């Protein structure tokens, strides 16, 4: 489990890539302070397992499922990446519940400043739109952010100066790809309300009619 509060920006030092998987060697400082074999570290929002490390780098394996469905497959040596260690049980929880399981990738379609805020609009896969609400949470490249606007298969987020400085999102441009993780609670609620999305024993009795009858909706 992660919080979406990026600890540092790391660098891809080496990549060993095959047709549908790869091994990444990543440099960092803060995430290596107490690292152990088997630890989980989020790289651009993707939860990966430390398989080896030294005083300045750690290595992770990227399996075919992750290779195919995240932006990690377009990284090259020298690329900057967002890094976050798994949240400790006694740590502060400054973002939102982030699993590190990417739902899909989005494409930046516009950026503009409003005073000190950088607004970024991202085109997302149509199937993910149902999980977003105005002022709800989203994780982009591992960064916990708030959805300020909803469009036709687009979401808009706002970056404060601190976030632009501390994450790679501040240097992203139109056309760049980002990893998208929808709010975990939204996904569970949607599945529950729709009877498990066809995978459960049947459709839930709780729907808009039920909520209206019992005063939860008008």
From TrEMBL:
InterPro entries: ATP_synth_asu-like_sf, Lumazine-bd, Lumazine-bd_dom, Riboflavin_synthase-like_b-brl. GO terms for biological process: riboflavin biosynthetic process. It catalyses: 2 6,7-dimethyl-8-(1-D-ribityl)lumazine + H(+) = 5-amino-6-(D-ribitylamino)uracil + riboflavin. Pathway: Cofactor biosynthesis; riboflavin biosynthesis; riboflavin from 2-hydroxy-3-oxobutyl phosphate and 5-amino-6-(D-ribitylamino)uracil: step 2/2. Lumazine-binding repeats lie at residues 1-96, 97-193. Residues 1-96, 97-193 form the Lumazine-binding domain. SUPFAM superfamilies: Riboflavin synthase domain-like. Catalyzes the dismutation of two molecules of 6,7-dimethyl-8-ribityllumazine, resulting in the formation of riboflavin and 5-amino-6-(D-ribitylamino)uracil. PANTHER family: RIBOFLAVIN SYNTHASE (PTHR21098:SF12), RIBOFLAVIN SYNTHASE ALPHA CHAIN (PTHR21098). This is Riboflavin synthase.
């Amino acid at each position: 489990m992660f919080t979406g509060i990026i600890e540092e920006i790391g660098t891809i030092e080496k990549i060993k890539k095959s047709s549908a998987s790869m091994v990444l060697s990543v440099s960092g400082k803060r995430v290596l302070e107490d690292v152990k074999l088997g630890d989980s570290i989020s790289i651009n929002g993707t939860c990966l397992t430390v398989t080896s490390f030294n005083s300045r780098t750690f290595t992770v394996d990227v399996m075919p499922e992750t290779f195919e469905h995240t932006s990690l497959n377009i990284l090259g040596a020298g690329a900057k990446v967002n890094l976050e260690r798994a949240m400790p049980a006694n740590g502060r929880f400054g973002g939102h519940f982030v699993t590190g399981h990417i739902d899909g990738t989005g494409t930046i379609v516009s950026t503009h400043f409003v005073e000190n805020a950088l607004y970024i609009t991202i085109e997302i896969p149509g199937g993910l739109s149902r999980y977003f609400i105005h002022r709800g949470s989203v994780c982009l490249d591992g960064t916990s952010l708030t959805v300020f606007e909803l469009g036709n298969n687009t979401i808009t987020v706002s970056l404060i100066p601190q976030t632009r400085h501390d994450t790679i999102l501040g240097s992203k441009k139109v056309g760049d790809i980002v990893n998208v993780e929808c709010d975990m609670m939204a996904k569970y609620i949607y599945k529950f309300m729709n009877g498990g999305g066809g995978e459960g024993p049947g459709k839930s009795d709780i729907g808009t009619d039920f909520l209206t009858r019992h005063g939860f909706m008008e």
